[in-house]
Amino acid sequence: MAACRQFRLPLTTRGRGTGTAGAAVPAEGGVVLSTERMNRIIAIDAANRVAVVQPGVTNGALQAAAAGHGFFWPPDPTSAEYCSVGGNLACNAAGPRALKYGTARDNTLALEAVTGEARVVRTGAYTTKGVVGLDLARLIVGSEGILAVITEAALKLAPLPERIATVRALFTGMDAAAQAVSRIMAQPVVPRALEFMDGAALELVRRRHGDIPGSAGAMLMIEADGLAAHLPAALQALEKAAAGEGLIEWRATSDAAEAGSLWAARKALSPALRSLAPVKINEDVVVPVSEMPALARGLESLGTEHGVRIVCFGHAGNGNIHVNLLGEESDRPAMERCLAQVFRLVLSLKGTLSGEHGVGMEKRPFVAMELGAAELALMAKVKAAFDPDGILNPGKALPDPGEEDPT
Q1: Which ranges constitute the DSSP H helices of 286-331?
Q2: DSSP result, 214-231
Q3: For residues 343 and 327, what is the distance between their CA atoms, to the nearest angstrom?
Q4: Strand stretches in 9-103, DSSP E
Q5: 10 Å Cβ neighbour count for 127?
Q6: pLDDT tens for residues 238-267?
Q7: So what's the pLDDT on residue 277?
Q8: On the chain, which terminus has fewer CB atoms closer than 10 Å, C or N?
Q9: Burial of 250 per CB tally in 10 Å (0-12, 13-18, 19+)
Q10: In whole angstroms, how large is the CA radius of gyration of the chain?
Q11: Nearest to 17, CA basis, from 86, 90, 83
Q12: Confidence (pLDDT) at 391
């Protein structure tokens, strides 16, 4: 870092390169700093439910180490076996379990990091409570490498549940499923995961699981966890909330093999979409759960208006939907026009443009749609305080001062 500052070289930090928004791409050249060999699990402190790790540790390796002590780290992105903890922290990655257990930011206690001035800073606390000073750790998590390079993290662990039950709920269409999500999230039993697939995504799953009836136009995958004795009552409450117009099937299982098969199909969805069209624009927008039905209807309307195929799945329990625009190369202009309207729809529903993929290069031109000039100016000052020479991951996350909303 000191050398890059001396010679004014841009520095881009890279974990395992699994991000989808281009945050680890060295857009302006310079130096790429790989953290892959910073892969030590320094401590699993079971007594305090804390793991201390370097940024190059993979999510999967951390989960395995924590499981040996009866714990897990809540963030579980689809790429968990390959992605690094540092990358998870940089993008505030989450996954299905964030619904009940929170995101990477919610499960980070303290950080060691190096700023753009080559200063080592330690921020946060080893305890779950602490209000001394400003919370710089939560600021650095999710900043996509534009403020500092994380070199060590103290992470909050959760106890492994005694039992997990998985439910497959089938609905006639997107609107019925979205209405059910809103009802489920309005009652006291919080699911461990609540995943959503629309009709087009469900068709890909149907090819792997022929037992899905053709009348199903949407599916929810629901997980509940906790003490084995408590799960029957929890499932009953979730089923009662899901019941309503459009529910075709409610099938619960505690069989690990069957549940694993269903999750494997879900995790294969994103790459499987390549079989439907050669060009895919993948966005992870978020809306309030109560606005899920409106989002579903709006996306259907936009797809028709622009002649673009839209396939949706994702973390419906917190309104985080992966919206996939599909087409041929010749369709790209229409897809990009449609994308801008998707973002405007999301913001009109009090949503946000990214839930866990980050902004990177891909969404940077659209940031000014969501954030005002005053907020962006304040963020630029924060960036300058950490990185006065502007060498950390330039061209990412935040627009340049005065850059206008392109749409």
Answers
A1: 292-306
A2: TT--EEEEEEEEE-GGGH
A3: 18
A4: 11-14, 31-34, 41-45, 50-53, 71-72
A5: 11
A6: 999 999 999 999 998 888 887 887 777 676
A7: 86
A8: C
A9: middle
A10: 21
A11: 83
A12: 97
For the question of whether the overall pTM of this predicted structure is more than 0.85, the answer is yes
Beta carbons within 8 Å of 387's beta carbon, 6+ residues apart: 115, 116, 117, 146, 147, 148
Helix (H, G, I), strand (E, B) or coil at 232: helix
- Write out the two tokens for 173: 């269409």
Place of tokens 């229409």: 334
Residues of the chain with pLDDT under 70: 208-210, 265, 267-268, 270-271, 401-407
CB neighbour class for 87 (10 Å; exposed up to 12, middle 13-18, buried from 19): buried
What are the C-alpha distances in Å from 291 to residues 184, 321, 376?
14, 12, 27
Q: What is the pLDDT of residue 338?
A: 97
pLDDT on residue 406: 53
Q: Give the residue among 38, 74, 34, 67 at the shortest CA–CA distance from 54.
A: 38
Burial class from Cβ neighbours inside 10 Å (0-12, 13-18, 19+) for residue 279 reads middle
CA 171 to chain centre: 25
Residue 233 amino acid letter? A
Q: Which residues contact 363 (CB under 8 A, 6 or more apart)?
A: 21, 283, 353, 354
Residue 281 phi, psi dihedral angles, 5° rounding: -110, 120
In terms of DSSP H, where are the helices of 166-277?
A: 174-184, 199-208, 231-242, 256-267, 269-272
Map residue 333 onto helix, strand or coil.
Answer: helix
What are the backbone angles phi and psi of residue 9, rounded to the nearest 5°? -95, 130
* Beta pairing class for 11-14 and 31-34: parallel
Cα–Cα separations (whole angstroms), residue 285 to 270, 292, 318, 353, 369: 15, 11, 11, 5, 13
Phi first, then psi: what are they for 201, rounded to 5°? -65, -40
State both tokens at 107: 């499960």
3-state secondary structure of 202: helix
315 has which bridge partners? Answer: 195, 320
- What's the rounded Cα separation, in Å, for the pair 171 and 242? 10
DSSP class of residue 367 equals H
